[in-house]
Amino acid sequence: MVLLVRFGELALKSRYVRRQLRDRLVANIQDLFASEGVECVTESDEARVYVHVNDPEKALAILGRVFGVVSISPAMEVHADLDSLRKAVRSEAATALSAGQSFALRPRRVGTHPFTSQDLARELGDDVRRDHPKVRVDLDDPDVEIHVEVRHNRAFVFREIRAGPGGLPLGSQGRALAVVQDQAGMVAAWMGMKRGCRTVIAASNGEDSVEPLRKWDVRLKVLDLPANGEFGELVRIARAEAVFLGTRWDEFDPKKRPDVGVPIFEPVIGLTEEGIGKIAARIRGA
Questions:
Q1: φ, ψ for residue 118 (rounded to 5)?
Q2: Helix, strand, or coil here: 140?
Q3: Which domain holds residue 182?
């Protein structure tokens, strides 16, 4: 099976930068799969990464931890001709639809073809209705959505779109140090990683908020945080260009902010405890 991997912000960059970021994303995907002992074959084009796997569920779980991935869809791949698409859509509908349900087809195309997206919706929708006379079309709130994505000479049929973490590929935006002393520090470190920073963790021995981050970065490095909490020397050791702290709003005092020679970011300062807890649960549950 092939998994369609979509990326968001990468597509806004220049062609050269986009290619660099996409290559970093593919390398990160391969690293995480290798760390889990799961085989995959990857390929990519200007707008998608394609991951071929034998175990889709395990692969989906892994891809859900790759920063830069916006969404993933397990798909059936066929040739981009109307007959092949008809067979694939009818097969998908036979699996998904039951009498009394509603459905919608969501076609999109990239490239030049002898049909338009509207042609696909009409032709394939008619096929589904003939095969399942007791279902109805509902474009606003259907029970089942069948997506058809035609990309040049390839086509993909799928139903599921599973969200990824988004952000930028890990390691694409420089190095950072994150001080992790509690749950808020773990969330701040994760948010820095999500923005593409290769983040070194500074933590006390036995800090249980560090281990969940290893599932998101298989190359994670951890430094011992001194007992006095001073981390200026660790910035130099980590060659960090920024620091992430888990400062909450009621703890914030700009006069006490240490001067370590690099920018300090406090990304959780505007979050409630509930908001921090939700992100922490996602980090631990991945």
A1: -65, -40
A2: coil
A3: 175-285
Nearest Cα to Cα of residue 178 among 142, 211, 222, 127: 222
What are the C-alpha distances in Å from 93 to residues 126, 133, 222? Answer: 12, 12, 49
Angle at 188 between CA 5 and CA 269, to 5 degrees: 120
Q: What six digits make up the tokens of 49?
A: 């990464």
What pLDDT shows up at residue 206? 65
How many domains, the chain?
Answer: 3
CB distance 278 to 285 below 8 Å? no
Share of the chain above pLDDT 90, in %: 88
Residue 114 domain-assigned (yes or no)? yes
Instruction: Note the pLDDT tens digit of each residue in 2-35.
Output: 999 999 887 778 888 989 999 999 999 999 999 9
Q: For 42-138, where are the alpha helices, taking DSSP H only?
A: 56-63, 82-96, 117-131
Residue 94: per-residue pLDDT: 96
Distance CA(213)–CA(281), nearest Å, equals 12
Among 242, 243, 251, 244, smallest CA distance to 273 is for 251
Please report whether residue 7 resides in a domain. yes
Could you tell me if 279 and 192 lie in one domain?
Answer: yes
Residue 57, in any domain of the structure:
yes
CATH number of the domain bearing residue 148: 3.30.2130.30
H-type helices in 15-116, by residue range? 15-36, 56-63, 82-96
Do 13 and 96 fall into the same domain? no
- Nearest CA-CA partner of 216 in 263, 280, 152: 280
Q: 73 and 14: one domain?
A: yes
State mean pLDDT over 148-173: 96
- Tell me which of 152, 186, 201 is where a domain ends: 152
